[in-house]
Amino acid sequence: MEEHFSEELNQLQSITNMVIEFLVNYSFQALGAIIILIIGFLLARKASRLFVEQLEKRDVDVTLRTYAGHIVNIIILFCFIVIALGKFGITIAPFVAALGALTVVAGLALQGLVANYAAGVSIIATRPFKVGDTITVINVSGLVKEIKLAATIVETEDQEEITIPNKHIIGEVLLNTFEYRLVEASIGIAYDNDPQLAIDKISEALKELDYVTQQPDPQVGIENFADSAIVIGIRAWVPTNNYMECRYRLNKKIFDAITQAGLTIPFPQLDIHNK
Fold first, then answer.
1. How buried is 180 (Cβ within 10 angstroms: 0-12 exposed, 13-18 middle, 19+ buried)?
2. How many other CB atoms sit within 10 Å of the CB of residue 36?
3. Rounded to whole angstroms, what are the CA distances from 39 to 19, 96, 101, 110, 130?
4. Minimal CA–CA distance to 121: which of 166, 70, 153?
5. Residues 246 and 239 sit within 8 Å (Cβ to Cβ)
6. Which residues contact 100 (CB under 8 A, 6 or more apart)?
């Protein structure tokens, strides 16, 4: 029993000696490392905040500001961690090599996600469109509701939300009509009617529609000459959020303008002559 107690006492003494030796040899290094980490944490947070404020003054997008602030914070904090580890004589070369290998593996495994985030940063930085614009890309059209780092969310007139991964936007043909969308219509009049009268009446009717933008101006003119009619073409810009409603009302307004002017809307005819 006494031998067992003596053995435990010796082990405790050895541990105590190790602790005392560590404190004697590394106490100042540990204290210095802690102070360095505290300074690094405060400085990283302060620098990140100042950087974000500068971006805000330059009207940089809020998502990009936040993302850039986090990057600055991480870089500065990492530098101070390296300095703190150096106080104990620890080299970070193996950690850097392992981090590099891990980054390569993660990049291969998450290349789709990384591509989306990279494309998101490019969209936010170059700003080919903004929230409220109407875009058409890869046969998808809608009003931009939100721009995220990974995807862009658009909304159709039917209140459908479509999420477009950002990697499918960068490098594609992008049509941005801002908050408006083009309505193209046409109507035929008889060959014995005056086409200029039809153009004038339709132009006047379009000016009475408050939802049709006058910048750019609506375009009305002779589109082509069909077999039984002179086709009058109409191009006008209307708000995207109620595009179809505006289109239907515009067609009705054009029809009323033509009929009230006494112009004839012909229909195909086939003349059969007996010999």
1. buried
2. 18
3. 27, 23, 30, 34, 39
4. 166
5. yes
6. none
* Amino acid letter for position 21: E
Per-residue pLDDT of the chain in tens (275 residues, 90 and over written 9): 555 556 666 677 777 767 666 655 666 677 777 888 888 889 989 988 998 888 888 777 676 677 778 888 888 888 888 777 776 666 666 666 666 666 665 555 556 777 888 888 888 888 899 888 989 998 888 899 988 888 999 998 888 899 999 999 988 889 888 888 889 999 999 999 999 999 999 999 999 999 999 888 899 999 999 988 999 999 999 998 888 899 999 999 999 999 999 999 998 766 666 66
